[in-house]
Write a structure and sequence with these properties.
Helices cover 73% and strands 0% of the residues. It is an all-alpha fold.
Length: 201
């Protein structure tokens, strides 16, 4: 795994170096990261289609403008995810402040992945109505504090390891482990508040 990450970062560093020599190469960075960053922003902030296009455009503008500041000894993937993360969180906070709604659908695969890895972790529940999960799980995720939602999305939906999450969120790995533990606990509390608990089985 570490070797794969190193190879990926070396490829990214080459892309960055080529782009710094010729800005025409920037399209290769967009091509490589556009879909994964759109997916991440959608999972984290759930903008509508037009908002998502605007956000991803803003992300790549910031990447382009700040490419000279990227430390090529570090992970480019984490660096670009951090920019996307900040844009998504800013968008989420502004929408919450002005009373916007989170009505964009999420994939069934996302809801069930969270159900299997967060809700059922530690045998919290072993069997539950799948339709009920699909109806309520994203609302529960949206009710979480953004710091908890971020680590759950990065860990369980984006499949990032502790070091990557640490780089993206600029927090020590030990703090990330604590946040994930607390996020799971808070998620379960919200599940119980919504009536999903072992007495329902």
């Amino acid at each position: 795994m570490a070797e794969d990450k190193n190879t990926k970062n070396q490829t990214d560093v080459l892309l960055v170096q080529r782009t710094l020599q010729s800005r025409d190469e920037f399209g290769r960075i967009i091509e490589k990261y556009k879909e994964s960053l759109k997916r991440y922003i959608h999972r984290l902030a759930r903008p509508n289609v037009d908002e998502l296009d605007m956000l991803i455009q803003d992300v790549f503008i910031k990447v382009y403008e700040n490419l000279n500041d990227f430390d090529q000894k570090l992970s480019f993937s984490s660096w670009i995810y951090r920019i996307a993360h900040n844009e998504a969180i800013d968008f989420h906070r502004k929408r919450k402040r002005y009373g916007g709604s989170l009505d964009e659908p999420v994939s069934e695969n996302d809801t069930m992945t969270l159900a299997e890895t967060v809700i059922a972790d530690g045998n919290f529940i072993t069997d539950i109505d799948r339709q009920y999960i699909k109806m309520h799980i994203m609302k529960i995720l949206d009710d979480l504090d953004p710091k908890y939602k971020s680590v759950l999305v990065l860990k369980f939906l984006e499949d990032k390891d502790y070091d990557e999450i640490s780089d993206i969120l600029k927090k020590p790995p030990g703090t990330i482990a604590t946040l994930i533990h607390r996020a799971k606990r808070e998620f379960r509390r919200l599940m119980i508040d919504k009536g999903i608990n072992r007495t329902d089985l």
